[in-house]
Amino acid sequence: MVIEKSNSAEPFVKWAGGKRQLLPEIMKYIPDKINNYYEPFIGGGAVFFNIKCNHPIINDFNRELINSYMVVKNDVENLINLLKIHENNNSKEYYYKLRSWDRTNSIENKSNTERAARFIYLNKTGFNGLFRVNSQEQFNVPYGRYKHPSIVNVENLRKASLYLNNSEATILNGDYYNAIKKAKKGDFVYLDPPYAPLTQDRESFVGYTINGFGKDQQIRLRNVFDELTNKGVYAMLSNSKVPLIENLYEKYKNTTKIVSAKRNINSNTSGRGEVQELLIKNY
């Protein structure tokens, strides 16, 4: 399969570590011919939405995020209508009212489309565009200070829905390995996991899910990367330029690229501003 590296849609949510500004570098190194495309840490999906291919497989551990992808694919017009209601009612009080759904368990009685509209609304109006949950899996990001937040982009949501349907994308929710374990020689896997922390005196940003993604998970991911390499799968991975990651992927240093990115969405100020990242390839 020849993939077309051109924009069909843009991410419909903000996401910490999103790849929009690094797209020129990332797209430059994606093979022109692949069999199947996998992205098991989809997040905002900047890379995914910037290519055109048939039958891509995407995944994330975040249930509410993946529900939103499913709703954008299957019920985009009702989603747009609900987002317009949220946009018209946006206020600090309204934000906390919707945020409280997972504290009162009323979220369990909401439809998938209602949950997706809430998720996107909170994402667009919450502080710094963060997604963070506490130990009870309750969304706990405070209201942001935006004068005119862009809550509903009708054109982009429809374009995203069209691509998800036309490409016949498979959308999964679970552990990343389950999403890529069937990858074969000639397939391409792009891995964009939660990053290793920039400093050793603080924990990595683990609010993305309650499980976190610490050193042991980074080691496991390196082992999976080696497994993909041994199977002849094209694999590319983004991560922080820190000793832990450089040491783990030492054998790939000759095909590793250093890129710079400005990070404004982060749980800690030391992760904002211009930082160096690694683009690790096995080809």
TrEMBL record:
InterPro entries: Ade_MeTrfase_dom_2, DNA_methylase_N6_adenine_CS, M_m6A_EcoRV, MeTrfase_D12, SAM-dependent_MTases_sf
EC number per UniProt: 2.1.1.72
Transmembrane segment boundaries: none
One MF annotation (Gene Ontology) recorded for this entry: methyltransferase activity
EC supergroup of this enzyme: transferase
One GO process term, biological-process aspect: methylation
Enzymatic reactions: a 2'-deoxyadenosine in DNA + S-adenosyl-L-methionine = an N(6)-methyl-2'-deoxyadenosine in DNA + S-adenosyl-L-homocysteine + H(+)
Keywords noted in UniProt: Methyltransferase, S-adenosyl-L-methionine, Transferase
UniProt family annotation: Belongs to the N(4)/N(6)-methyltransferase family.
Protein name, per record: Site-specific DNA-methyltransferase (adenine-specific)
